[in-house]
């Protein structure tokens, strides 16, 4: 990271964030940005004017604007896979042509979206039937980007569900598919096989299991299968007719694919209209990202806050803390988005990257996390920058008082992280219970260092449009961080070695082959499995 930023950190690291508020009564306003009805408040960080200027200068000198324009224009910015990166085209509902290799991709994108809409309506109104009548349940079989996005968003938008019940199966662990299918009726269940490549072992194994399950009850299992994939040849080999294949191009990365066919399960749940509102939300964030000046640009600001905390201050992790039970899969979704995109160690040209790259992203919804890991966030020896997400109102009008409690808790947590509690206050709070040496000892356990950074993204309500904005915001944030770090955010070679070794180990674990070329530990574990199963 550049030396100016390192110097600024050295100069300010012992400063209290609270001092920044006392010296500038406008700090909250000055260190916030708005987009649409959304407010991003990063004033509870140690970033001051000088630091922000330097961080935004870094954005300028890293070539973010040029790379961004290249991405939106369909250039081959995923250089290690020789592909464009155009998930933005999937939500470009009225933005005009987008060219890849001289061909406008938009007619194809819009045609597929229309086909998805027609199919979704047919399922939802019963025009398309299972072999036992109207489809009541849909099982999306996919993993990684072919699961996390639709699973997260379908849960998030539960108040908008008015279609069949949607289930998600991802893990190759047979428990997942078995537990999901157990209570479903094969005659009224639609199975979606969601896989960009249509080769992923987990997905194809679960798809075959589901096909066998359907085959026990219905005469033509393939008739209740849908495929979402870029590999049309493989979907037809699996037996899924072309009219039920929704294709997309290789310029849509798995973890960026919710906006197109991979979002079909979400569309079935909330309907094509609400799905379009979700796309429009994302598209509005794209426009903002392309046009807003850097100091008002939400993806840029999230990115520089991230770079400041991770690369400059050295805080390795980042907690995603949505105060919304329906966003309970958001941290998992962001884990893939951020860690698969920016968890790399070499630059585009193959040179080693000096310093740390993508952060470790984790989290749980509030208030649950408060009763689990917030202890460490408040009093642990490591600083964990926290990212709160909060809606001003919930969907349960009759339970508005519970939403008020949720809001109060969220705001209280960011306040507590900022303000802390010093020894004097801890002493005085406990002087009625303890005295002397014991008071001192007890008070020390009750000190909160405070001065722990957090940001809050707040919006009126979690509608399809707002969810689209939030996801696109984080996608672009990851892009900006990737450009600053010099990373190709769009490949994922780091997942390959494990896949190869698992394929080689499968016959060893099944007992069909012996392997003597394994390390001692792996050999011992294989032997244990072989001995300890019936
Ligand atoms: O193993 C990683 C990965 O390739 C992800 O990037 C992707 O989202 C996931 O597997 C699933 O891939 P597919 O959609 O091709 O089944």
Description:
This protein has about 525 residues and is an alpha/beta fold. It folds into 3 domains: about 5-60 and about 290-420 and about 450-490, Glucose-6-phosphate isomerase like protein, domain 1 (Rossmann fold, 3-Layer(aba) Sandwich), CATH 3.40.50; about 90-275, Glucose-6-phosphate isomerase like protein, domain 1 (Rossmann fold, 3-Layer(aba) Sandwich); about 495-530, Phosphoglucose isomerase, C-terminal domain (Orthogonal Bundle). It contains 20 helices and 15 strands. The protein has helices at about 5-10, 15-25, 25-30, 50-60, 65-70, 105-125, 150-155, 175-180, 200-215, 230-240, 265-290, 300-310, 330-340, 375-380, 400-420, 425-430, 435-445, 465-485, 495-510, 520-530, and strands spanning about 30-35, 40, 100, 105, 130, 135, 135-140, 165-170, 190-195, 225-230, 245, 315-320, 360, 385-390, 455-460. The strands form 4 sheets. The protein has a 6-stranded mixed β-sheet, sandwiched between helices. Helix 13 (about 330-340) links the parallel strand 12 (about 315-320) and strand 13 (about 360). Helix 4 packs across helix 12, helix 7 (about 150-155) packs antiparallel against helix 13 (about 330-340) and helix 16 packs across helix 17. The longest helix is centred in the middle third of the chain and has 28 residues, at about 265-290. The structure holds 6-O-phosphono-beta-D-fructofuranose.
């Amino acid at each position: 990271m550049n030396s100016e930023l390192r110097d600024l950190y050295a100069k300010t690291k012992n400063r209290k964030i609270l001092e920044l508020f006392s010296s500038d009564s406008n700090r909250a306003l000055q260190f916030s940005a708005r987009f649409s009805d959304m407010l991003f408040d990063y004033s509870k960080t140690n970033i001051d004017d000088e630091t922000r200027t330097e961080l935004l200068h870094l954005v300028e000198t890293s070539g973010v604007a040029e790379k961004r324009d290249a991405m939106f224009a369909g250039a081959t910015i995923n250089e290690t896979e020789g592909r464009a990166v155009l998930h933005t085209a999937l939500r470009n509902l009225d933005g005009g042509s987008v060219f890849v290799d001289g061909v406008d991709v938009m007619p194809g994108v819009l045609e597929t979206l229309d086909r998805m809409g027609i199919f979704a309506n047919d399922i939802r109104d019963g025009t398309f039937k299972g072999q036992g009548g109207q489809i009541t349940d849909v099982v999306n079989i996919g993993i990684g980007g072919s699961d996390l996005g639709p699973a997260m968003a379908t849960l998030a938008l539960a108040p908008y569900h008015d279609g069949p019940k949607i289930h998600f199966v991802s893990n190759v662990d047979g428990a997942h598919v078995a537990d999901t299918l157990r209570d479903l009726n094969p005659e009224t269940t639609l199975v979606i096989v969601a896989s960009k490549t249509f080769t992923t072992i987990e997905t194809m194994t679960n798809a075959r299991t589901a096909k066998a399950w359907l085959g026990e009850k219905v005469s033509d299992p393939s008739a209740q299968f849908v495929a979402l994939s870029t590999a049309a040849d493989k979907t037809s080999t699996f037996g899924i007719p072309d009219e039920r294949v929704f294709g997309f191009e290789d310029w849509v990365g798995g973890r960026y694919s919710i906006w197109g066919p991979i979002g079909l399960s979400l569309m079935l749940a909330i309907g094509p209209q609400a799905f379009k509102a979700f796309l429009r939300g994302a598209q509005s964030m794209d426009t903002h990202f392309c046009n807003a000046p850097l100091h008002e640009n939400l993806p840029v600001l999230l990115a520089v806050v991230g770079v400041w905390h991770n690369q400059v201050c050295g805080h390795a992790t980042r907690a995603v803390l949505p105060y919304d039970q329906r966003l309970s899969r958001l941290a998992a979704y962001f884990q893939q988005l951020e860690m698969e995109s920016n968890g790399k160690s070499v630059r585009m040209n193959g040179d080693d990257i000096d310093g740390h790259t993508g952060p470790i992203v984790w989290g749980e919804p509030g208030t649950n996390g408060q009763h689990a890991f917030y202890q460490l966030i408040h009093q642990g020896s490591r600083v964990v920058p926290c990212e709160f997400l909060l809606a001003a109102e919930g969907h349960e009008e009759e339970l508005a008082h519970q939403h008020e409690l949720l809001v109060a808790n969220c705001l209280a947590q960011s306040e507590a992280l900022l303000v802390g509690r010093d020894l004097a206050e801890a002493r005085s709070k406990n002087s009625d219970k303890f005295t002397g040496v014991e008071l001192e000892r007890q008070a020390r356990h009750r000190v909160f260092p405070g001065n722990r950074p957090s940001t809050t993204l707040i919006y009126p309500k979690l509608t399809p449009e707002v969810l689209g904005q939030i996801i696109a915001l984080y996608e672009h944030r990851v892009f900006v961080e990737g450009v600053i770090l010099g990373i190709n955010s769009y490949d994922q070679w780091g997942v390959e070695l494990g896949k190869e070794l698992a394929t080689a180990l499968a016959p060893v674990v099944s007992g069909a082959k012996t392997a003597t070329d394994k390390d001692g530990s792996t050999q011992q574990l294989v032997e244990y499995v072989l001995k300890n199963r019936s």
